[in-house]
């Protein structure tokens, strides 16, 4: 009888220990499953390794984000030239400018044009003078600019090709922002075929008064 009781106690003890072990294992699996996110495998890997990788990934992502959002000190770029290639081509065929009227073809406000260019292919007289004036300046303070003729591509008395540079000089309070073509005659001008106006801007700068 004594031996049977002893065997019974041993078997009972083994059974209780097995139940306790199964309970502990179940609790651990439940905890891990609760923390895993099937939509984020990297987070699951970090969870299985104790969470240290998750913290490192979060820190790295935050650092990259801050790098992309780095801002220069306020006002650091004020009044500095900016390279900005811009080009406008106008086909003038059939367009009419009334007597003493003008055609506004470009405006860079609130930036001044530091480096720019105007090219015109327009009617001209026998002395190679264009039938329209080129106006450059901060509107409405336009000034007539005498463009240079490109003789190789001009036909005096018919059509001539001209070009003129555009540049500002803040030290002299010269702020070039606008380009226009003016009809300085007492008759309307209607442009014939192949008439064009091209404005190219390579460099601009902020700081135009009132801009």
Question: How would you describe the overall organization of this protein?
Answer:
With 211 residues, the chain is of the alpha+beta class. It folds into two domains: 2-68; 82-205, Jelly Rolls. Helix content is 28%, strand content 31%. The protein has helices at residues 2-35, 41-48, 52-68; strands at residues 82-91, 96-97, 102-107, 112-123, 133-137, 143-145, 148-149, 159-166, 178-182, 189-190, 196-205. Strands 1-11-4-8-7 form a five-stranded antiparallel sheet, with no helix packed on it. A four-stranded antiparallel sheet has the order 3-9-5-6, with no helix packed on it. Strands 2-10 form a two-stranded antiparallel sheet. Helix 2 (41-48) crosses helix 3 (52-68). The radius of gyration is 40 Å and the shape is globular.
